[in-house]
Amino acid sequence: MDRKMLHERVYALKYVMEGGQVHLGAAQRSVEYDLEQVRTASDGMIDPESVSQQIIDIVEATLENEH
User: Fold this and answer.
1) Which of 16, 49, 61, 62 suits a disulfide with 21, CB 3.0-4.6 Å?
2) Origin, by domain of life (predicted)?
3) How would you write the pLDDT of the chain (67 residues) with one tens digit per residue?
4) pTM of the predicted protein model
């Protein structure tokens, strides 16, 4: 997945979670913590190295469901 797509999807996930539109059961707190750890690079995009594997897995699953 390219960096731009990762950036868009991570921020979309943050948005829906903050709005209470997504509930992840027992994983909720862990995902919230991982989202808090995401850093922004100097170019304004997220730093891919700050994105946990758990977040990447969620993002990839949402992409698979769209196709």
Assistant:
1) 16
2) Bacteria
3) 899 999 999 999 999 999 998 888 999 999 999 999 999 999 999 999 999 999 999 999 987 776 5
4) 0.86
